[in-house]
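Exam prep: given the inputs below (a chain plus zinc ion), describe the expected output before reading on.
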Amino acid sequence: MNIFSFTAHFDSEEACRTHFKKERDEIGVVCKECGHTQHYWIKSRWSYECKNCRSRTSLISGTIMQTRFAFLLIILTSISIYFGNAQSPGSSLFPQITDWKLSEPRIWGPHNLYTPINGAADMFLSYNFEEMQAADYSTDSNYISVEVYRHKTPIDAFGAYSQERPDRDIYSDIGVQAYSEDTYIHLLANRYYIKIRTANSDDKSRPAMERIAAQQVEMLNKGTSFPKEFAYFPKEGRVPFTERYINENIFGYSFLHSSYEVSYQLNDKSYVLFILQGDLTTKPGIEAFITPIDTTGTLMPVRPSVR
Ligand SMILES: [Zn+2]
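Solution:
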């Protein structure tokens, strides 16, 4: 059974948006602030505005509409596995490395993450960020800085990692996954997103960075593997290293709280396939434009979504 044949597809972004607008109008919009059901349509923002309290409901997330074609599926329930706290309380996140002097860690929480990373903080906060610890390793002539971002769950950490991961880089299987160039190694271990950087990559700093990475993975990852939701995506045409996890409401529906995304290249066309995560049982009618799959990844029998 070909997963693509069961999903909605569109020739243009406009067609896709218009389709979802029509579906949404049929199902109806309820204001999340005041419960009112009458809305203005603001086309320039692809949003509904409540006639009573003026609060807005966005039809569609900006990230979803960037490519020509979109395929939509849904997972019925949350199936992410939570691995618990892999680090014992009080233990250091930063291993000692011979010949490198380790600084005391600096610790930042959700209330002050803006101080060290400023504008990047919003992205981390949207993925249930809990704490960031930063420390430096130095010699007389060089230094390595390490930032360890702790999120609530491994999929939250994956989400933040997937937002920053470049489209092209050198990938490896350090921890869950890592990408690196001469001056940095960014990696994912359990619920930790780790950034190891140096200004001067030389024959001493690079091996030291790799040892820090290996020891942090040993300490923190505890056998965590790549999020298994991505195993539901078909192999044909799949572009490597494009898996993303988006933690925000989809199409303005609060019950569609997150999505898994993978890019595809098929027959000279670009696609993004989404698995939306949410609870379908509360929203009869939405099957019109999505194809449910159950928690084992099996397609559920529904009427065809293309009309
Ligand atoms: Zn309202």
